[in-house]
Amino acid sequence: MRKIRNLHLWIGLFTSLLILIEAITGLLMLEPWLMGINNTMPEQREMHRNQGMGQAIAEDIEEEEMVSNKNFRPAGQRNSMLGIVKSLHTGRIGNTDVSLLLDIVAIGLIILTVTGMIMSIRALKVRGVK
């Protein structure tokens, strides 16, 4: 059982670092003003997001043609899961703006990851591992 706990601890520390990086970069991509980039009015931001959606749809169609040519699925059948994933990463579900929810989730992940890493490091110090 001790080996499993150690394995869990070390894998948890490593993956926590990766999750922390993903959460921070995701938040920065969704809110570029945090880096001092793209300080635009809300109307301009919505236009930028809509342009991103247009690009995502164009990429969907391009990928659809590529996959259809390989006979993985019939031509004209869209990959809705890919569209959903791309929409989520632009802060939208359908026509609804969910960027605030994604911001909250990213901040929550950052807090949980950092506190988890602190607790893991403290556990290692108690065990005498340097």
Question: What brief labels describe this structure?
Answer:
single chain, 130 residues, mainly alpha, two-stranded antiparallel ribbon, 4 helices, 2 strands, 74% helix, elongated
| Distance N to C terminus | 21 Å
Strand coverage percent: under 5%
* Fraction of helical residues: over 70%
Number of domains: 1
**Low-confidence parts lasting 5 or more residues at pLDDT below 50?**
66-77
Shape: elongated
Task: Explain how this protein is built.
Helix 1 packs antiparallel against helix 4 (99-127) and helix 2 runs antiparallel to helix 3. Helices cover 74% and strands 3% of the residues. The chain has 130 residues and is mainly α. The chain has one domain. It has helices at residues 2-30, 42-69, 80-89, 99-127, and strands at residues 92-93, 96-97.
